[in-house]
Design brief:
The protein is mainly α and about 70 residues long. The chain has 4 helices and no strands.
Length: about 70
Amino acid sequence: MARERVVKLHKENLSIYDISRSLDMEGHKMSPVGISFILKEEGFASLPRRRDEEHPLDPHPTVAEALLQK
């Protein structure tokens, strides 16, 4: 199930980090590295690097927030 979801999200031009966050929100933990292995096995090439204005606007956790979650 997760493999098919990873492929579907990648076809929507989401990065491995975006896919990881999306799966996490759905209750499926998967690291960006694991996602990249799946995509390589499926024959996908890496997406081209985004320009700064193309990055999603969702906030990223700060170091303090990340430490508080542990």
